[in-house]
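Margin note from the TA: students keep mixing up input and output lines. Inputs are the sequences; the output is the structure of the whole complex. Example:
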Amino acid sequence: MARAGLSPDAVVDLALAIIDEDGPAAVTLAAVAGRAGVATPSLYKHVRNLAELNDLVSVRVMNELADRLREALLGRSGDEALRAFMHAYRDYAVANPGRYAAMSQAAPPEGGAQAKAADALVGIVVGALRGYGLKGADVIHATRCLRAAAHGFAVLETAGGFGLPADTDDTYALLHHMIITGLAKPARSQDRTF
Amino acid sequence: MARAGLSPDAVVDLALAIIDEDGPAAVTLAAVAGRAGVATPSLYKHVRNLAELNDLVSVRVMNELADRLREALLGRSGDEALRAFMHAYRDYAVANPGRYAAMSQAAPPEGGAQAKAADALVGIVVGALRGYGLKGADVIHATRCLRAAAHGFAVLETAGGFGLPADTDDTYALLHHMIITGLAKPARSQDRTF
DNA sequence: CCTTAAAGCTAATGGCATTAGCTGGCGCCG
DNA sequence: CGGCGCCAGCTAATGCCATTAGCTTTAAGG
């Protein structure tokens, strides 16, 4: 028994490899153990159970995405920062559709690492919007809209929801345009119908 | 054996009941059979397998959502139609979070009922945008953006992604405002950076 | 060396999907 | 009215997966 030398991080690495190759649904303790060259129950020495593994994967992916976004935002501000954010967000989702999906599907309510990573991500979105001079609750509203737009687009694009032949780059440009112009014109009053 | 009188539709009904009560993850053939008062393998007389049941559920939900949207759009046009669309879309997702999630998670590539229902839904979105005088590919781009925004918001809201205390109605109003203004100002040229 | 904790293993359980093959009730045709 | 066939339901069996329990071995450190 040559000692596989596993660790929680190593287990997550293997899970990510499976996700990249066969999608999130293929992540099973048996599959991970197979890659590790280890019997399935051995994984329990590193991970509490499958649910925890999924959480760890989710956190890892969120942090990875956060890193990409932070890097994209470095030294940029205003419209340029927003454009860089959206570009980087979409690029990550398209380049890593499995990971992106794995991130989304994790259970939300938790006070642990999951929530911390999500908060960090939200903080980055807020950062991308700095420079638009938003105050108070408007920051929250704009952040939510940006998340909704970016996530919605990413889901549709990575899930193959765009069947028609039109260029998705142009679509993304329109989405970006909507956010920009919507943030520029603060008009918000009679819209309270909602 | 009193003849349970099942049918594919009845099986889907039971699955929907489970989804409404315990979420999409609880939909298992064993659970459905339990509700039907039938042994698990009996379900295979009505449904090819679990995957097909999920597809049928997805189609049913898409059609249900499509009905709500169509009804909301009746007799409306322009901004009013768009507002009604978004309102109805969000209302459905919030009122039926389990069903909404079940719809999204189904496998996309197919030439069958799944694709037909999805196309119908897209057609409704296109209809909601009629009146903005969009031509050619712009129709597609606007449709995709509207879908992305509505879906992204619905996912975030139903998954509890909005942790902060700000009013989600106000956020939705901003999202609506972004779409309106973005459609109004056709500016799209240098954005080709994407 | 020898101890000990961690890392692995095997065995066992229970849930689930799925397949095969049997059976009985009901509609329909004569 | 009686028989026939089909269809819906059943039981049995298989295989995969997660998870638990308890044993064994490795390797690190005194």
